[in-house]
Amino acid sequence: MRKWVLSGILASEETYLSHLEALLIPMKPLKAAATTSQPMLTIQQIETIFFKVPELHEIHKDFYDALLPRVQDWSHQQCVGDLFQKLNLKVKSTKDSHSPSSTALLYKPVDRVMRSTLVLHDLLKHTHSSHPDYPLLQDALRISQNFLSSINEEITPRRQSMTVKKGENRQLLRDRFMVELVEGSRKLRHVFLFTDLLLCTKLKKQAAGKGQQYDCKWYIPLADLTFQTIEDCESTPIPLVQDEEIDAMKIKISQIKNEIQREKRTTKGPKAIERLRKKLSEQESLLLLMSPNMAFRVANRNGKGFTFLISSDYERAEWREIVREQQKKCDFSLTSLELQMLTNSCVKLQTVHTIPMSVNKEDDESSGLYGFLNVIVHSASGLKQSLNLYCSLEVDSFGYFVNKAKTRVYRDSTEPNWNEEFEIELEGSQTLRLLCYEKCGNKAKQGKEDGEITDKIMAKGQIKLDPQTLQNKDWQRSVITMNGIEVKLSMKFASREFSLKRMPSRKQSGVFGVKISVVTKRERSKVPLIVRQCVEEIERRGMEEVGIYRVSGVATDIQALKAAFDSNNRDVSVMMREMDVNAIAGTLKLYFRELPEPLFTDDLYPNFAGGIALSDSVAKESCMLNLLLSLPEPNLVTFLFLLDHLKRVAENESINKMSLHNLATVFGPTLLRPSEKDSKISHSSQPISMNDSWSLEVMAQVQVLLYFLQLESIPTPDSKRQSLLFSTEV
C-alpha cells in the first residue's frame, strides 16, 4: 500500500510540474510578435492550466475578468508576466489587507516544489537504500531538482550536469557544431554527448535581444547506439561540393576580411564594420557547412541511422572512443518532460558557444600561421608488439582539418624509425595533428565503419602551433604522447614571404634556379629533361596514387633527386624507380617553384591576372590565348607538355582524388607567382602572419591555370603548333 501511495505521489508530482512548466515557459520574456518561433499560449490553454495548478485558483477569476481582455492588445515588448505586474491583481478577499498580491501568488507553485524538494531530501536521508521506497523517492527528488534548475536558467552560471535516475549526474562530456546529412541536404547541428545519451539539437532562430534556445532533433541512448558499417546501412551518397565553389567561398572570405581591415583604418564608424562582419559570418558558416565530406554514421536500436559529415579522421576517432568508453558504464532513463528540460538546459550546459570561425575571434587573437612548416617525423616508441605502422599529418585551414602528409609504412617493428621530412603549406593554421595507423594487409583486420575500409588507428595526438616559438628559425623538437606511444618530431616554420622567394642559383651548370631558356639551350631540347623524366615516372606508376601532387613527398628524397639532377647524375632514372612517387612529384613542383622567373614570366603576369578577371567570355578567351602564345618558346612548350600531363592525371580523379581544380591549386602559384622584385604583395610588419591580399593573389593564380586546364584544346596556329609540339628535340 505504501509503495502504491508513493507511486501515486510521484505521478501526481510529475503531472503537476508538466502543467507548471507549460505556463512558466511562455511567462519568460517571450514577445507576442507573430514572427517568434515560440508559440504563445491561447486563452483556453492559460485558463486550463490555471484550473490544474491549485495555487492559482485564487487569482483565476481576476485573471479571467481583467487580464484576458488585454491579451488582444499585447505589444511586441510584453509577455504574460509583464501583464500580471502591471495589473497588480489582488485575490478575491480584497477587504483583507494582508492578502498577497498576484505577483506573490505566482511564486506559490514554485514554493510548493521547493518545500517538496526539502521534504524529499529528509525522507531520503532517513530511508535505507535497500528499502523498496528508496528508488521512488529518488525519482521524485530528481524531477523536482531538474525542474528548479530549469526555471533558474536565467540567473545561474553555466551548469555542468543534470540529475538522473538513482541520484546520479548526467554529465556533459562534449558538445560540437557538426554537419548532419538529412535527405541529401547539409544541416548545421549542435550535438551534445552526455554520460548516457547523444542529443542532436538545432539552434532556434530568435528575434533580436532574445536568448538562445534549442530544439531537439533526435537523441539516442548510448546503450542503444551503434556505429553503422557498410553492410548494415543503406549508404546514402554524400553530395560533394565542387572545388570551384569552395574556392569561391574562400575568395569572398578573403575579400571581406580585406574590406574590414580597410574600414578599420577609416572613420566610417562601427556600423559599416558590423555589416561586413555579418557578411563574413554568412560566408564562413557556408564554407564550414559545405566543406566536410567524411561520413560518421550512428544508429539507434531499431537500425535508424543518422549521418554526420566531418573533415578529419582524428575527430571521427575521438567521437568513437569517448562513446565506446561511456557505453561500458552507462544507464539510461528519460521522460518526455526531462527531455524538454534537458534541451532547454543545453544553453547553460554548452561549452562551445560559437562556430570556430575567424569572425568569432577577438582582434588580438592569432589568425594562425601562413607559410610552410617543415616537419620531420623521427620515430615512435612504446609499442607493445611489432606492427606495420605509418603516421598521417593533418593541419587546420579555414576552420576545418585537412590531411597533408603521411610517412611510409615501417614494417614489423616495435620502434619504427622513419626520419622523414615533409613540407606542409599552412593557411591560417593553428594546430598540427598526428595519427598513427596500423597498416592492415588482410581484409579481416580492416575496419569497415562508416562504409569505408580503413586501417586501424593505434594512437592520435596534436600540438598547438605557437607563433612565438616558431618565430625562431631553428628546428624545434617536440614529443607527442598518446595512448602510451611517443612520437618524436622536429618542426621549422618559414613565412610565405620568405619561403616563396625565387632565388637564382649561383651555379648555372645545374637545373634548379636556372632560367628555363638556359637549360633547354644547354640540353638542346624544347622541354627540360627533369620535367620529362618526372612526368614519365609519374605516368608509369603514380596516376592512381591518392593525392598525387597534393600529398608531400619525403623532403630528404626530394633533396637527393635535386642534387642528382643538378650534378647531371646518370643514375638519376635508377634512383627515381626506387623512390616513393610522391617524392618525384615533389621534385617536379620544386623545380618550377625555384625557377628564377615564373613559367608565365614576370612581364606577362599582370596581364594574365587582368585577363582572368574579364567578365565577357569571348574577350577573356581571346585575351588569355593571345597572352599564352606570347610566352617565350621554351616556356610555352614546357607549359603545354605539363598541361597535357595534368589533364591525364585528372582523368583518374575517381581513384587519385585529384580534380582539375585540385591540380590548379597545387600548380597555379608555382607556375605564376612573380619574382620578389615584381610581387605586388604588401609585406606585413609581422612576418608570421599573412595579409589577405596575398590570399587573393594566390586565388587569381589558381584561376589562371584552371582556365587553361578546362579548355579542351589550345588552338595555336598550325605552323607554330607543328614547330612546337612535334619537334624531335622535345
From TrEMBL:
UniProt domain PH: residue ranges: 171-328
Predominant localisation class: other
PANTHER family, per database record: BREAKPOINT CLUSTER REGION PROTEIN, BREAKPOINT CLUSTER REGION PROTEIN BCR
Domain Rho-GAP: 514-707
Intracellular or extracellular location(s): Cell projection, Axon; Cell projection, Dendritic spine
A GO MF term: guanyl-nucleotide exchange factor activity
Pfam families per UniProt: C2, PH_19, RhoGAP, RhoGEF
Record-annotated C2 domain positions: 351-480
SUPFAM superfamilies membership: C2 domain (Calcium/lipid-binding domain, CaLB), DBL homology domain (DH-domain), GTPase activation domain, GAP, PH domain-like
Keyword Repeat attached: no
Gene Ontology CC: axon; dendritic spine; membrane
Keywords, sorted A to Z: Cell projection, GTPase activation, Guanine-nucleotide releasing factor, Synapse
Location of the DH domain: 1-86, 105-154
GO biological process: signal transduction
Name this protein carries in UniProt: Breakpoint cluster region protein-like
